[in-house]
Amino acid sequence: MKNPALTNRRLRDLPGIDKLLQQPQWASIKDQIPYPILLEAAQTIVEECRIRILNAAEPSHSLPDLDTIANQAVQLARRLNAPNLRPVINATGTLLHTNLGRAPLADAALTAVADVARSYSNLELDLDSGARGNRFSHVDKLICQLTGAEAATVVNNNAGAVMLSLAALAFGKEAIVSRGELVEIGGSFRIPEVMAASGVTLREVGSTNKTHLEDYTSAICAETGLLLKVHTSNYRIVGFSEAVSGVRLAELGREENLPVMEDLGSGMLFDMTPYGLPREPTVAETIAAGLDIVTFSGDKLLGGPQTGIIAGRKEAVERIRKHPMARALRCDKMTLAALEATLRLYLDPVRAKSAIPLLRMLSVTAAETKNRCTQIAAQLRAALDDQMECHIVEEPSTVGGGALPLSELAGYAVAITPGAISVDQLCARLRSGPLPVISRIQAKSLRLNPRTVRPDEEPLLIAAVTAAFADI
Ligand SMILES: *Cc1c(COP(=O)(O)O)cnc(C)c1O
Hints:
This protein has 19 helices and 17 strands. It is an alpha/beta fold and 472 residues long. The protein starts with a helix and ends with a helix. The mean pLDDT is 93.
């Protein structure tokens, strides 16, 4: 039974915000946390109490004492004061997660970002002549060196690179694309829509599974402005299928005097078959095939910052650079610093493989993941023996990020079955800790895959899992 008089009395007993903020619990954080956050925390907790009183069937049981309220408010203030965007431990084993920020950067890239961001820089100043420089000069020669392209430029991401290139090369005209390559990357990046937004008319040719050279040839007309190839990054058409190679399309483009462009998606600078990945043309091979423009992401398999790299023939790159939209898509000095440092690592492939986190994680062998699982499982058992069961299971990793959908990297994971809470609850607790751990659930157990966990994160992972089992 509700008792309105009692409810009102309980509401009157709630501490005022000023009184709550004067409690001794705040002393330790008052100097570190801005006042608006302290105030928000105090108001939120008091409001929660008020709602609980109003909703309680039995008002007498509903109000915690002032000490408890103050403790809750202080905890909330700490949480509100933590950055919104912060590091997480990726224990999914998936190397490229767009939700988790794609590729972690190499130390050299981090240092370059900090150095350039802390000071002024020669972003657009030619230090030799003292004249105005070009911000892309810091990376374009490196891109040419690594890909064999005549010229290159960079924008904020590959979606931007595709849009800008289409607009610059074929605005108001038709671009011919195979029906087997009308890719959707996720969100609203679909080739037909990107074309429409760039002012280019899509001319589909061939069928879903087969497109022949004649399909392109017979579609070419006075309105044709471009031949476009799109890498089917996140799906494969297998079986009775056929596509026209970049080499053939480039030949056709030269015969017809039409530019030919390929959106490579996740461009690879070197052959990844030693990692157990399928043979895909590298950027250099695509350029050598004679395409006028190729575009690819900086933060997929390249392992660098979010960028869209545009490389190819000088004249086509110049047109792209001079397009008015280029200014709207230009990347900032921190991105350029990170990209330059990452590309410099690639000049020495051996060094790249050990210094670029993505390449390092790709090269981890199944046996190494098993060893790391053994160590993690032993520590978890020592800390949480009676609260969970854990064992080591085979679990292949995928590259993710819409790259190489069919390939898997062999490896192992730790599978945890909690005793007193559900697997879903454990997964949620791991996500909500001060250092969130992102894990997967498979076959009713929680999986921790060490491939994407840096060795120096391992003690933090153990601590986070242990903490997730506290006060159950
Ligand atoms: C990933 C991808 C894109 C989009 O690249 P972003 O860097 O995410 O903007 C475009 N095309 C293809 C084929 C891709 O794989």
